[in-house]
Amino acid sequence: MTEIAPIAKPDRNRPEPLWHQAEQALRGLIADGTWTDGMQIPNEERLSTMLGVSRITIRHALRNIEDSGLLRREHGRGTFVRSSTVIAGVRGLTSFTQEMAGLGLIVGSRILERDEQAASAEVASALEIRQGEPVVRLRRLRMGNDAPIGVQTAYMPLARVPGFLALEPSASLYQTLSAHFGIAPREAREVYRVGTVAAEDAALLGIETGSPAFVVERITSDAIGPFEFVHSIMRGDRYEIRSRLHI
Asked: What is the pLDDT of residues 55-93, one digit of tens each?
């Protein structure tokens, strides 16, 4: 565990709760790179001493940061920074860009391929069009804080997005669809499966061929009907699914 510079202690005269001030101070160490991805952070007792607050206060702050996906606890080992993890669970209908921003991560995207194809049987079924109809295919490497997280391939009916391939690429597909084609997502259906990473995707993601991954398929619709079918391969070590269950 690396030594770190002293942390600014919470101010008891401020109106914000001590746990909130402690949480923001610790998040700042991740955001500015003082605590790097994979680094083990000080234990609760040491953090309590460093910030001048109780261990209960520290525990509250760490739990919130862990829930947001920036930390991971390993039983018997300690707590580690996990600054490039996307947490999927019960959430609203958002784009990858919005999802990343909500987690406090810097979104990154590299276009791998953009072309027009004839819809396969699978794509046609998902988009509710005839097999062989033209679709736009957009394949991208998605990143968070400059670390590769997944490879996503989106298919859209050409009839819904004429001229899409002539547009300047944008970080957010949904912003482009809204601005140029008046498409506003209304609902989406997602299916998650556990799979492995093929050689082509493994090279892009910086992991070994056959590494575990989440295979995610998403069909997104607007008021007219399905306009997007996305197939994603998400790194198993940087993508999590969490749910909170209630009686």
From this structure: 999 998 998 888 766 788 877 788 988 755 555 554 444
Q: What's this model's pTM, rounded to 2 decimal places?
A: 0.64
| In the block, residue with structure tokens 């565990």 | 1
C-alpha span between 48 and 59 (Å, rounded)? 9
Give 96-111 as a DSSP string.
HHHHHHHTTPPEEEEE
User: Do residues 230 and 218 lie in contact, with contact meaning Cβ atoms separated by under 8 Å?
Assistant: yes
Domains and CATH numbers, the chain: 18-81 (1.10.10.10), 89-240 (3.40.1410.10)
In this predicted model, what pLDDT tens digit does every residue of 204-229 receive, in sequence order? 999 999 999 989 999 999 989 999 99
Distance CA 72, CA 52 (A): 23
Dist. CA 231–CA 215, nearest whole Å: 7
Give the integer Cα–Cα distance in Å for 191 and 193: 7
